[in-house]
Amino acid sequence: MCGIAGIVRFDGGALAQVERMRAMRRALRHRGPDGEGEFVSADAVLGHTRLAMLDRAGGAQPMTSPDGRYTIVFNGEIYDHERLRGRLPYPYSTDSDAETVLAAFAVWGYKCVELLNGMFAFFVWDAAAKRGLAMRDRLGVKPLAYAWDGQEFVFASEANVVAKALPGPVRADTDAVLEYLVAPCFSGVEKPMFAGVSYLQPGSWVRVTADGTHVHRYYRFAVARDGDGPGEEELKGAFERSVRRTCVADEPLAVFLSGGLDSTAVAAVAARCLPRLRAYSIVFAGMREFDYRRSTIVVSDDMQYIGAAVEATGVDWRAVEVPREELAADLERVATTNDALPAWEQEVAQDRLARAAAADGFKGVLVGDAADETHYGYHFLLDPEATAGPEKIIKRFGGVAVRREVLEDPVEAFAEKYRAWVRSEADEEERISGTTRLIVERWLPRLLHNGDIHCMRSGVEARVPFADNELLALAAKVPPRVGLAGGEKARLRAALRGVVPEAIRTRRKSALPKDQGAGPVYQREAARLLAEPPALVRELVDLAAVRPLLDERRELGEWERAGLFRVIGLCHFSRHHGIP
Predict the structure, then answer these.
(1) Listed residues 490, 505, 520: the one ending a domain
(2) Strands of the sheet with 44-50, listed across from one edge
(3) What would the DSSP string read from start to end of 24-43?
(4) Spatial contact of 10 and 43, defined as CB atoms under 8 Å apart
(5) Fewest CB within 10 A of the end CB: N or C in the chain?
(6) Taking the CA atoms of the chain, what radius of gyration do you get in angstroms?
């Protein structure tokens, strides 16, 4: 896992951009503390920071093919790269998966991406053809942002790094920030929060030549409408193989354990591969006493289930506590780390878990992300009202009031965008399928971005077994009527019988915990920051609607608390990035 950056010019002026590229590389140092490298030519300057998980001695980047034609900067892990090597006539000089990808591109060209099983974002410079190509994995586990002005192509692993490398002051993309305020769970995916910067979308590649850029989508997750889907044993086998593939590393791996179905199943299989597997779970003050009846997505206390998971799997368990007196500092940290703006309160937990794993010397962790989105894991899919149209989902999860002068009807403005996936006039099964497509294409990449950026802030690689190609292909064959037969995630639950304790296998989906007692901290922090709000906040946020929430005599509801969390995040984000 690494940080990548580069500048390509077609006027022979890349050599003059070396210091700019090095500044970008320095800004990505947290993503790769084990080493750095660069490639310099008249047409392209590429930088790399390395988190060494495979072939520490030989996997330095950038890496150039023996004939000098292709140079790669690669971020990610290809889990089956040794199998691919046997199919490629190539004079290998390292044992790294980056060289496998370089060889695959040299032999197969663009088609190589269809054969890569893993998480990745990489850029290849073709010196002979004078063109570059960036590719991103199927679900968007690994990020890549870029800018193109007709003369210069600038890219990096983080959008803020690209924004700060462009001429002039950093500016916000107003539409992207508005989406964050109105529909946070779908925000920060279509485009970054920075004006002039684009994201390469999941399952896509972009080719850049002197004539411009060309983007191609090579993969979309599309659920089946017919058939019965894979059998339980077939799905179970694919899942177990996916976990085993993600356990291959030269460095020790840990696991984030919530006591839910997904993370417990990952821990159970990984514990067979990794001796004395370390597991980390988040613990908030007073968590056992939280009123889960008033919560939409965190519906039960994790602790009893975590105990059962630890006993069943034999993992070496560690509790990661989040002191409430440090919460204000945590809010600033997640807001200045996440350049897509922190959308969920649970990002505090993600950051704390990553910091704990890093402090114990781990460079990689296994996570249960992507299971809910690709296996019908959300309970609201069973609610006809919730799937009746995208506006229902937006309202269900709340937002921040925006100024009427900016958007007359904020919910409708963004719901219209999402109707490409969900049509209210469709039949029930199609509405569920459409909602699932929307979740996979907009909600899931946001979740994966959050996991990546908070883990990589601490130099920790998050590995996602549920994003495995084989497992994804089987998940896509499960139609809604099968995946939701008797409850959410029905086919996956059936497949994991015997892998996890029954109490966990049948447990209703509950999201990663958040601190339900954090309201007073949010109120104080928001009041402090809004005493002199940044111009961006004054321009977009309806402060008159927000200010009543700051009264500490008022007990905040779940989505009022979430709204203040996002206002705090926007204030810190604006100031940190120097956005007026």
Answers:
(1) 505
(2) 35-40, 44-50, 2-9, 152-156, 145-148, 198-199
(3) HHHHTGGG-BTEEEEEE-SS
(4) yes
(5) C
(6) 23
What token pair was written down for 236?
């179970």
Neighbour tally for 429: CB within 10 Å: 15
Q: How far is it, in rounded angstroms, from Cα 461 to Cα 182? A: 31
For 258-284, the pLDDT digits (tens) are: 999 999 999 999 999 998 999 999 999
Angle between the N-to-C axes of helices 347-359 and 444-457, in degrees from 0 to 180, rounded to the nearest 10: 40
208 and 253 together in one domain: no
Residue 196 in contact with residue 203, Cβ under 8 Å? no
Task: Let me know whether 487 and 462 are in one domain.
Answer: yes
**Domain span at residue 140?**
2-144+200-217
What is the DSSP secondary-structure string of 523-549?
HHHHHHHHTS--HHHHHHB-HHHHGGG
The SS3 call for residue 78 is strand
What angle, rounded to 10 degrees, do the helices at 444-457 and 327-337 form?
110
| pTM, entire model | 0.96
pLDDT of 67: 96
- In three-state secondary structure terms, 131 is strand
Q: Are 137 and 121 in contact (CB under 8 A)?
A: yes
AA identity, residue 424: S
Regarding whether 252 and 130 lie in a shared domain, the answer is no
Q: Look at strands 118-126 and 70-78 and give their pairing.
A: antiparallel
Q: Which residues, 6 or more positions from 10, have their beta carbon under 8 angstroms from its beta carbon?
A: 43, 130, 151, 209, 210
Q: Residue 94: inside a domain, yes or no?
A: yes
* Measured distance CA(35)–CA(263) in Å, rounded: 31
Same domain, 204 and 301: no
Q: What is the pLDDT of residues 165-214, one digit of tens each?
A: 999 999 999 999 999 999 999 999 999 999 999 999 999 999 999 999 99
